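[worker-b] picked up task from shared queue
[worker-b] task type: protein-ligand structure
[worker-b] ligand name resolved to nicotinamide-adenine-dinucleotide; SMILES cross-checked against name lookup, match
[worker-b] sequence length check passed
[worker-b] input payload:
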Amino acid sequence: MESERQVALITGGTGGIGKETALTLANEGFSIAINCTSEPSKYVDLKKEIEEKGVKCLFIQGDVSNFDEAEKMVKKVIEEFGKIDVLVNNAGITRDNLLMRMKKEDFEAVINVNLIGTFNMTKHVVPYMMKKRYGRIINMASVVGVGGNAGQANYSASKAGIIGFTKSLAKELGSRNILVNAIAPGYIKTPMTDVLSDKVKEEIKKQIPLGTLGEPKDVAKLVKFLSSEDSSYITGQVIHVDGGMLM
Ligand SMILES: NC(=O)c1ccc[n+]([C@@H]2O[C@H](COP(=O)([O-])OP(=O)(O)OC[C@H]3O[C@@H](n4cnc5c(N)ncnc54)[C@H](O)[C@@H]3O)[C@@H](O)[C@H]2O)c1
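[worker-b] inference finished, payload out:
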């Protein structure tokens, strides 16, 4: 029955990891809500691809770093589907530079989208999850949020913040059957890492025991697991998908 279908809301759902996550959860029978920053009409092909799997798909345009827009997006999903079972806080940006050259605006922009965006969406979704006494929140962190990275002080601070946020919420919401986990991807082949030169990619590969960059599906498969009944005793964790890069 349509009303029994689980509903997943994925922010940044048109990017590399987000799109793969949407397709993977659609395969599992989830109704899919995708947050995007451009006009939804740009994504008719993705919508069709998801709906061909026999599930509904809603695109909602909005900026996660804007508190009011986040609220409107969540309300639209509730109007359409009546609930949100899984929230994947995946929207993220980089503005890399060494501290000496990093502009205040670049530090703030990354914190606003990655960390405050995660807060904004979670803040508006959690009341609905509490009512249902069920929810899965999956936050996209990064290995850089655990190990740091020269040239990414803003990004690693945002991702380390997401990890603290994840653990605190896991403690706050466990009694309501809302599980909160973070994924820490290493280097995954997406538009975010396409900007790296081949030379830099070769250097990165040398630090990865499995010797290669990851694929979006490597992350999406973990989102699938964390959205499923198979992970029902796992909360407050930061799970690395990084080919062994950071141990
Ligand atoms: N690719 C990697 O190697 C890697 C590694 C670690 C963590 N991550 C994290 O995974 C997540 C997905 O990254 P990706 O590699 O797929 O990158 P991507 O650039 O392909 O996707 C990012 C998505 O976020 C969206 N977005 C940006 N600003 C937004 C805003 N203000 N509001 C709503 N959406 C916004 C973009 O439109 C895009 O769809 C990010 O949080 C990123 O930090 C990626």
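[worker-b] attaching auto-annotations
[worker-b] Residues 11-12, 14-18, 35, 37, 63-65, 90-93, 113, 117, 140, 142, 185, 187-188, 190-193 surround nicotinamide-adenine-dinucleotide (CB under 6 Å).
[worker-b] releasing lock
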